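Q: Could you fold this chain for me?
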Amino acid sequence: MGVAVVGAGNWGRNLVRTFHRLGELAGVAEVDLELRKTIHSQYPGVFVWREFSELLESDVPALAIATPAQTHYQLAREALLAGKDVFVEKPMALSRAEAEELLKLATSKNRILMAGHLLLYQPAIRWLKNHIASGAIGEMACLYQERLKLGRVRSAENVLWSFGVHDIAVLLYLVGEKPQEVNAVGRCFLQEGIEDDVHVHLKFSGGVQAHLHVSWLWPEQRRRLAIVGSKAMLTYDELSQEVVLHKKRITPELRNRDEGSKVVFRGNEEPLLLECRHFLECVAGRKEPLSCGRSALEVIEVLERAGKQFREDKV
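A: Sure. Below is the predicted structure, expressed as structure tokens.
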């Protein structure tokens, strides 16, 4: 079949390596001369296009787009119009209107549209989804997600669009529905109009609430998720890839009950490999991806609602 990767920069090189490892790298499209030289050196025999338009005219059936976020919509749109199946890195687009257009276009062209929500392909996240569904922690009450570090600051998007896309995707996936309410607070320290530190609070129809804190201006690196249920609690440390079950709860008599904690899952698979393999399977089997265009649209709706509050706070 074969997949061509569009963009071989900071993240694109990982997609190039992974699709090559899977034996499905059809080529690379890259405008930067030095990056093209690197691809030629590291992957002898792999075809490299200088222009995206040249790739669109080829018989390669599927593309993986890993260019700057502000180009995702236009490149994905052109690819879908050319009849290609499309994997596009997060965020799929920078507005709800753009995401809706991509989804409608993919549907009308009967093309696969998949967003690069990498965290959904962490085995621990799939394990958490199944464990919650089993009823083992009782009724889910709330989720708390942190993604904090001294990170690579962007100028085209704020920290929520850069860091928080994965986490919003996970929260919606674990709860299983879109939020009824979105409340957000952000602070701009480094650049005017670009939030560096953001808190988002989500309320869902079933009473579940979720809170996300993302920052690229933080002294420590933290990637943690906590889930509170009526019978037990779970914590997931993305850095160590461990899920811990805490047999702790508050009884109906308002007494603390602590029966200890234990590690219940350790992940050691590569999520990017699983994600790329999933795209290949969806293209071959014409099936809807886990991180499909519709789920990506729901994530972008949350991000856009949060952004609206940031703008209103500045008035």
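A (continued): The domain at 3-118 is CATH 3.40.50.720 (Rossmann fold).
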